[in-house]
Amino acid sequence: MTADGGQADPVWFSEQLAPLVAASLCRHFKRVSAGGRGHPVRTRHDHAMPEKGFWQVYAEGIPSKYNSLGLIIKPFGEFCRTCIITEEEINAMVSTDIERFAGQSGIAERRGFFLTLNYLIPACLKEAGCEIVGQEEAEGVTVSLARKIARAIHAGYLREMNRQSSSIPGANAVRVAEFDDLPGEIRESNISNALHIPSKLLAIGYRIRPVRKGYKAKALHLDDEEIETMARVEHLRWSWEKRLCGWTYGKTRDERHKRHPNLVPYGDLTDDEKQKDRELVRMVPGILRDIRFEAYPVSSGHTARLAYALKPRSSIQKLLLGTNDLSAEISLLTGNSPSIMEKLRSIDDRIRLTINEVEGSYNYARYIQDAFLPGDLDIRECFTDSFVLFEPRDIVSGDFYLFSRQEGMVTFGLADCTGHGIPAALISTIGYGILDQSVNILKIDDPSEALSNLYSGIHRFLRKDDRESGLPDDMTIVLCRFDPVSMRLYHAGAGNAIFHVTDGKISGNLSGMLSGGQLSNGSYGFKTRTLQLDTHDVLYLCSDGFADQFGGGNHRRYGWNRLRDFLLEISGHPMAEQGDMLYEELEQWRGETDEDQTDDITVIGIRV
Amino acid sequence: MDKLILSPTVFTPRVILDHEEHYLEISGESRPNDVREFFGPIIQWMNDYSESLQRSGNLGKPVVSHFNFNYFNSASAKCILDICKILARIKSGGTDISVKWYYVMGDDDMKETGREMEMIVNLPFELIEIQSQ
Lengths: 608, 133
Known about the structure:
The complex is a heterodimer.
Chain A: E1 2-3, E2 7-8, H1 10-35, H2 54-60, H3 62-67, E3 71-75, H4 87-100, H5 111-127, E4 130-134, H6 143-167, H7 184-195, H8 197-203, E5 206-210, H9 224-244, E6 248-249, E7 259-260, H10 271-282, H11 284-290, E8 293-297, H12 315-318, H13 323-333, H14 338-372, H15 376-382, E9 386-391, E10 399-406, E11 409-417, H16 421-441, H17 447-461, E12 475-483, E13 488-494, E14 497-502, E15 505-509, E16 529-532, E17 538-542, E18 550-551, E19 556-557, H18 560-570, H19 575-590, E20 601-607
Parallel strand pairs in A: 6-7
Antiparallel strand pairs in A: 1-2, 3-4, 5-8, 9-20, 10-11, 11-12, 12-13, 13-16, 14-15, 14-17, 17-20, 18-19
Helix pairs in contact in A: 1-2, 1-5, 4-5, 6-7, 8-9, 9-10, 13-14, 14-16, 16-17
Chain B: E1 4-6, E2 14-18, E3 23-30, H1 35-56, E4 63-72, H2 74-92, E5 97-104, H3 108-121, E6 125-130
Helix pairs in contact in B: 1-2
């Protein structure tokens, strides 16, 4: 019925499921329009019924619409997970619908009509036996774990009730049922809440795991911004839980017709209501403690496709830290004079505007970089068991990597352009272009020859020979070609590290940061070396960013030796997990002093 | 020609280039956003110094240069290499040069980089282990 990991099969969906969903959509739509209050945003003629064939066609389009947002539709077992779909995602799907039905007069312009439908779809999928989960959400969170969390939440609630009743003299102890005695609906609601604690934590860049035996759990401290993000997710969760049970928006609460005034975006809630969500979220660290779980940080790659995730503060945004405090100080010093405060506000606004402008162009540069760098799928086609930890220092990266498969051979490599930020990213764009051409178009097989071609190309581009205007910039690199049949690895490089783990031992080149290359006679001294690999051997390619990271509580470099030892230590784990472990190690090293990232960081791990 | 003396910042090292005492020192951390802006004047000074030594002939005592980094990025590495190349040129011009390359105990990477520089420019480095910066 489903293919790996539970993604609904399109044929199965359109044959088995679409008719059910179509019928249920049509029915719910009638119900909602009869009540006259589907969603606060609406226009007068939104609820005229479309033609008969429409519903089936519309239902068939649901999976592709969801997939494009990274949402997976899959059959549920004993329990339907509450989906978390943001208002922005709903709006995106409405736009898709409008485009899709553009030819059909009378439907396409009805934005409110599609808005109502998109808010109804998840409940209809639930009726047909399907739940909706985000890609990263689905990982590692099971219903049995949720049950455990739900019990802990309930136990905490009981404790709180008892404490309150005993602190009020003369009050009778409140009788609250034990978890197993709760009515089914409330128990489900508790489990639904518990299931999303991991989602809320993922929204701020954490996953959870059991505390290892004999270890002390890491404490989780949430700042205001994190609490706000999690509260937003909590409200989304609550809203969808209601909608999945058939509730819609109504000006006043109406149990019989299932209307609720709080079925609005988080931003439109009263502060009292927001406060309730925040209180729920503040309980999370305590709940984790109760069930002996801890939160650990995950790289931004895991949250990139989560629409509701908090974007990590960029190095550019960090420049703004403290400006508000300064403004507050100045206005205090000047006796809060209104005219000065007014001026300060206008300065703050201008700084923010400027930073946003700069960051916007960085962000778009990152899109461009993401577009040419190999995607997860390309990499997995070359090596199924692998990871890429890619952490730019300033949004864009001077590191770049290549994965390419031709005639049974795999070529892959990692380069680190001098500097960081926009200048390095510009060089990396040229570098990737020339390397791609050498490998994929000129089909230069020998890594050292491909590198000579790359370096002569880049030096020509940057007019290195011209002392006046020429630039000495280039890159450090390691380039490999792997023959899966003979298990031979041919590699050449300058400056970047390649480590090889075999038989419990790690070996590798620890060459420093001097990019090699041009000899005094103008030729390039690259040499291709051959390495015989065994099945299950592990290779790591690293730019110098990880080893150069300052931290350790005392502004120390992490260092190559430490990195080599750490890689050996984790090399037995599945590769994807190793990527997460490296990120956690990095975060730990940066530590409580919160050292800035020194340089762009890339580590590639491959099990052959 | 003037002495070139720069105070250290978070991103740039301390620089003391003294042509009267024949004392050269670069120490601290080097990761400027614009390496050209920072190292340009240093390279220029080194070239001028090299030329003035050509004219003045034998000094009777060696030029002493100290490299005492706890970190430099790859862009800085190229500039430091350029400085070392100028030192090698001064040496081949007949002036006695001593290069002292410091590394904090346990920082094998900095030690290794010194050794690598030494090989590339073909100028003997004295590698000196120190307790801390």
